[in-house]
C-alpha cells in the first residue's frame, strides 16, 4: 500500500487516504538559453546553472466506511492549510520534497465508502535528504563528501574570534570581527549571528556550495570548529 506524509501527517494512518498508483517523479528542467546567430553553426548557449520547479501528480483514493463527506473536508483542510511543507513518499522514505498543493481537488465518489481524486503538488526542483545531520569539522584540511547528485547549499556556523578566512575547494570566504560564532547560510544567502542579527557586513566572498563528491575545507585565523548543516540534494 502506497501513501505519503505531508506537513507531518501520514495520508493513510491519519485519513485513510492511499495512492492508487505510483506517481511519476519528473526531473527538473535546467535553464539553458539558446540564441541563433546568422552565419554561425549551432546556437550560442547560456547556461544559468539553475533548475525550474516540478509538479507531481498523485492519484489518490479515500477508503471510509462512514463519514465520507466529513473526511473529505478534513483532507482538504489538511492539504491546503499546510502551505509549503515537506512531502515524503512511502516508497522513498529517505528523501523529501518541498511542496505545496496547487490544484482544486475534485472528488469522484465511486462507492458509498470510497472516493478518488488527483492531488497536484508544486515542488521545488530537488529532493532533499530526510535526515539532515550536522557535520562537525574540528581541524583545517578535512574533507566532506557530498552523496547527492547536485551541489548543496549548506549552513555553516563558524566558532572563533577575530578575522577568519574559510576556504572551500579554493573559494575563499572572509569573515571579520567574529565574536564567538557567525552563521553563513548559503540557502538564504544571508549571514547572521547567534541572535539572528544581520552580519552581512562582516562577510566578503560568495556563499559556499558543496560540489558532488569530496569537498576540501580549510581555514586560517582563530577557529575552534565549524558546524556544517549540509542540505544534501538530488535531481
From TrEMBL:
Stretches assigned to the Siphovirus-type tail component RIFT-related domain: 13-123
Pfam families: Sipho_tail
Highest taxon above the source species: Bacteria
Xref: Gene3D superfamilies: 2.40.30.200
NCBIfam families documented for this protein: phi3626_gp14_N (TIGR01633)
Protein name, UniProt field: Phage tail protein
Source organism of the structure: Heliorestis acidaminivorans
Taxonomic path: Bacteria, Bacillati, Bacillota, Clostridia, Eubacteriales
